[in-house]
Amino acid sequence: MKKAIFLIAAVASTLFGNAQQANDNNSMLWKIEGKGIEKPSYLFGTIHVLCEEDFQIKEKVSNAFNSTSNLVLEVNSTDPKEMESMQKMMRSEITLSSRLNEAERKEANEILTSQMGITLEQANYVSPSGLMSIAIANAMKCPPTKIKFFEGEFVTMAQAQHKTIGGLETIDSQIVVMEKSYTLAEILNQIKLKSDYAQIMDNLARFHKEENLPELYRTITDRRFMNTTAENLMLTERNQAWVKKIPAIAKKESTFFAVGAGHLYGKNGVIELLKQQGYKVTPVK
């Protein structure tokens, strides 16, 4: 009888321990402390594009934001040079047609016509990264006028509170990463998955609202949409670059960092990389 009780207790401990461990990651907001950081900074995981009906800034996020004196995004969208680069990102002097052979041009035209309602000729001067951005927007369940951006909301809040605003990288560096991550053929194949993308966007919105960081990360790294090369370039390498900058910024002044939620979780995520440096990073429930 005693052995049975101990066995049940051991199994229960394992099960509840695992449940607690999973639950510990259920937050989009994390506090950064320790190693010379005098006042806590915060790390928040965003979804870059959400339909208005799925968008919300929870009270705990507002409280954390209001307690800091500095906002840092992936890119400082208030910098005119970055805005100019963003506009340039959408267009290319090298046409899409010139990147494809005759058979590929025919297939590309069919994909663009059926999935996006535009011809290859109409999209000819759109850059590959611009095409990817349009494809994602096209997969949203709401029209462009109903799309919300966390980054835009945070900038408006920061300006109202006279916070300083900064960025961890530049648009130009993001363009380089995108071009290395996906070939034009791979981007066109992604466009063919429009219905899958629509489901993915719904799942991301749900997991973000539920603050289920592990499931959100697994969704973002689904191999249908992000191969190992893209994951290394778009997530791992950028995370490693960011964690070289985040501590110095946090030590200088209390900062609210807002980056894509896919960058937070995993063994190469920003949370784990900061912990490896000796910083205390804890979920805000």
From TrEMBL:
Cofactor(s) named in the record: Mn(2+); Co(2+)
Membrane topology designation: Single-pass type I membrane protein
Keywords in alphabetical order: Glycoprotein, Hydrolase, Membrane, Metal-binding, Metalloprotease, Protease, Signal, Transmembrane, Transmembrane helix
Subcellular location: Membrane
Signal peptide: 1-22
Highest taxon of source: Bacteria
InterPro entries: TIKI1/2-like, TraB/PrgY/GumN_fam
Protein name as it appears in the record: TraB/GumN family protein
Organism annotation: Flavobacterium suzhouense
